[in-house]
Amino acid sequence: MTVIHNLSKDTQNFREVVQAVAAIESIVQPQDAWSYQAMIDLFEQDSVHLLIAYESAGLAESAAVVQGYCLYQSVFEQAEILRIGTHPDYQRRGIASQIFAQLHLALRDKQVESLLLEVRADNTPAIALYKQQGFEIIHQRKNYYQLTQKPAVDALIMQLTYSDFK
C-alpha cells in the first residue's frame, strides 16, 4: 500500500529520505538531476515542501521504500512544482496521480490559487499526466534545455488554476 505524506525536517530519518529522493532524481532526470545537497539546502526556506510516496506494507516508516516524490514551493497564493518523480520500478501504478491528489489537498488548505510547473517539451508521458491533472500550457521557452551534442529542447510552462475546481 502506498502512503503519501509531507516530509518534515524534524522527521527522524529526514536526511535518509532526502538521499533516497536524490537517488530517484538521478535515475529519472539524468541530464539535470538535483543533488542531495541542493535539496537539503532548499529546506532552509520555509516555503519549500516535499511530499513522499512510500510503500508502507506494515513496515515502520524508517524502513519504508520511497516510491516517488514531489518537491514544491508555496508562497502566498502561488505554488510551483520544483521537481517530481516516481522510481521506474513503481511507474505506471498511479503513484504520481496519488501524489497530485495529496498536493492538491495541501495547496487548497493553504488557499493557493494556481500551481505552476516546467517540463521538457519532449517529455510526452509527463505532459499527458499534467494535462490529465488539469494543467494547461501557458508559455513556451524556445531552446531552453541545452545538452551537449544534442539539439536544444523547448521548455513548457504549465499552470493549473484552482478556482476552476471549486
UniProtKB/TrEMBL annotation:
The GO terms this record gives for MF are: N-acetyltransferase activity
Which CDD domains does the entry link to?
A: NAT_SF (cd04301)
- Cite the entry's keywords alphabetically: Acyltransferase, Cytoplasm, Ribonucleoprotein, Ribosomal protein, Transferase
InterPro entries assigned to the protein according to its UniProt record, in alphabetical order: AcTrfase_RimI/Ard1, Acyl_CoA_acyltransferase, GNAT_dom, YpeA/RimI_acetyltransf
Q: Which domain of life is it from?
A: Bacteria
Q: Pfam families given for it?
A: Acetyltransf_1
One of the record's GO cellular component terms: ribosome
Q: Which family does it belong to?
A: Belongs to the acetyltransferase family. RimI subfamily.
Q: What is this protein called?
A: Ribosomal protein S18-alanine N-acetyltransferase
Lineage of the organism: Bacteria, Pseudomonadati, Pseudomonadota, Gammaproteobacteria, Moraxellales
